[in-house]
TrEMBL record:
Top-level taxonomy: Bacteria, Bacillati, Actinomycetota, Actinomycetes, Micrococcales
Topology relative to the membrane: Multi-pass membrane protein
Intracellular or extracellular location(s): Cell membrane
Entries under InterPro entries matching the protein: H+-coupled_symporters, MFS, MFS_dom, MFS_trans_sf, Sugar_transporter_CS
Annotated protein name in UniProt: MHS family proline/betaine transporter-like MFS transporter
Keywords: Cell membrane, Membrane, Symport, Transmembrane, Transmembrane helix, Transport
Source organism: Canibacter oris
Transmembrane segments: 12-36, 48-69, 81-99, 105-136, 157-175, 181-200, 237-258, 270-292, 304-323, 329-353, 365-387, 399-417
UniProt GO molecular function: symporter activity
SUPFAM superfamilies in UniProt: MFS general substrate transporter (SSF103473)
GO annotations of cellular component type: plasma membrane
């Protein structure tokens, strides 16, 4: 019993650490977008927007990766899917780090960046969904919200690592050296982190939920694709996963990851200063995430979601006004008003989304609902709001966009979701009538 408990806790720790690596690797592209624009897109008009769009294209490949890895994770095991995805991410990160610039390869440099970013997106399709499923299934009853929230908290640690290292290098190196080779160091670090996850994940043990569902797959009704079973038997769960993840992805990427980029575009702050405020956003998110996960265990997922949704919708405009403030304290308050509800929503969603599904097809169904939302409203939200600001000249466009999108997705999500905080895992796993 003691060995089993030790193995369970070790597996949860390894799984949770995986989101540090995932979000460092995936978000570092956006934090270095100014340097990537000069390295690979300098001759083209709108080079910065092209770099952002390339980063966003990676999100389009997340659903494809989700379908492949979701099927594998439901059929063969969560662990195996996560081991393979780490290897693919390492290849993508090392590839970008070592890729020659436009001066050497011409247009092929931009094409290869696009292909490597797509490969990273394919890999990430397995990551966050697989990790949150693993943590939710491994947690004790009554603690699933807190346990799964560490996937969200650690993703913010990964983002903090990305923005923190970017900030440090921006201050430590002359601008010319940062543009010439400094940004490559950040991608090399990402490759090393991803490669280190391969042996660690091989030590993980599968969850009881997967073991039970795997045994059920011997029955005739469970022999077909887990994804097809989820689409046929649990379409409402997939829809709810999509709606919850729409709010979560839009707020995360706009309210936390996009903060330095927004400040550079909309204010006169220097690059090092904008990255510093991005670090503040990530720190705030890390601190509040596990506490909101605990609150979701105590009060229920729906109630906490409702409070967070009201904060996002009502607080977006004041927050962006504060970001344009004349004082650093005003900017910090604006950053906090954006980061807290974004981090909180991700914390609650980490348990609430996998709880929408029964054990059979959970990885596949959640992967599709989550990754389609992230592809549409996560990676492309920064591109959309940047374009809106350029076209309208209104620096408050991100606030209007976030409030409208979160209202349209958040209210139906609250009405349709299963509120499973006080249910046992066996009850959550049970087939729907």
């Amino acid at each position: 019993m003691h060995k089993a408990e030790t193995a369970r806790r070790r597996s949860m720790a390894v799984a949770a650490f995986g989101t540090v690596v995932e979000w460092y690797d995936f978000s570092i592209f956006f934090y270095t977008s100014l340097y990537l624009a000069q390295a690979f897109y300098a001759p083209y008009e709108g080079s910065f927007l092209l770099a952002l769009a390339t980063g966003a294209v990676g999100f389009l490949f997340r659903p494809l990766g989700a379908m492949v890895f979701g099927h594998y994770g439901d059929k063969i095991g969560r662990r195996g899917a996560l081991v393979i995805s780490a290897g693919i991410m390492a290849i993508a990160m090392f590839g970008i780090a070592l890729l020659p610039t436009h001066e050497t390869l011409g247009v092929w440099a931009a094409i290869l960046v696009l292909l490597l970013r797509s490969l990273a997106g394919f890999s990430v399709g397995a990551e966050y969904t697989g990790i949150t499923v693993f943590l939710m299934e491994s947690a004790r009853d009554g603690r699933r919200g807190f346990a799964a929230s560490w996937a969200a908290a650690n993703s913010e640690i990964g983002a903090l690592l990305a923005v923190g290292l970017s900030t440090w290098l921006a201050f430590a190196l002359p601008a010319e050296q940062m543009q010439e080779w400094g940004w490559r160091v950040l991608f090399l670090i990402g490759g090393v982190l991803a490669a280190s996850m391969i042996p660690l994940r091989k030590l993980m043990v599968e969850t009881e939920s997967f073991t039970r569902s795997h045994q059920q797959q011997t029955a005739p009704q469970h022999r077909r694709s887990p994804l097809l079973l989820a689409l046929r038997k649990q379409p409402r769960a997939i829809l709810v996963a999509f709606l919850i993840s729409t709010v979560g992805s839009a707020t995360y990427f706009l309210n936390i990851t996009y903060v330095p980029t927004y400040l550079e575009a909309a204010t006169e702050l220097a690059a090092g200063q904008t990255l510093l405020f991005g670090t503040v956003a990530a720190l705030i998110a890390i601190v509040v995430t596990p506490f909101i996960g605990l609150a979701a265990d105590h009060f229920g997922r729906r109630k906490v979601f409702a409070v967070l949704l009201a904060t996002v919708v009502g607080g977006s405009l004041p927050a962006y006004l504060l970001l344009q403030g004349v004082s650093g304290s005003a900017v910090v308050f604006g950053v906090a008003l954006l980061a807290i509800p974004a981090a909180g929503w991700s914390a609650v969603a980490s348990a609430a989304v996998p709880e929408q599904f029964t054990a059979v097809g959970r990885y596949s169904g959640m992967a599709i609902g989550y990754n389609i939302a992230v592809a549409l409203f996560g990676g492309f939200s920064p591109v959309i709001v940047t374009w809106l600001m350029q076209q309208t000249g209104n620096n408050l466009a991100p606030a209007y966009y976030a409030a409208a999108l979160c209202t349209l997705a958040g209210i139906p999500a609250l009405l349709l979701m299963r509120n499973m905080a006080r249910k046992t895992l066996a009850e959550v796993d049970a087939p729907l009538n």
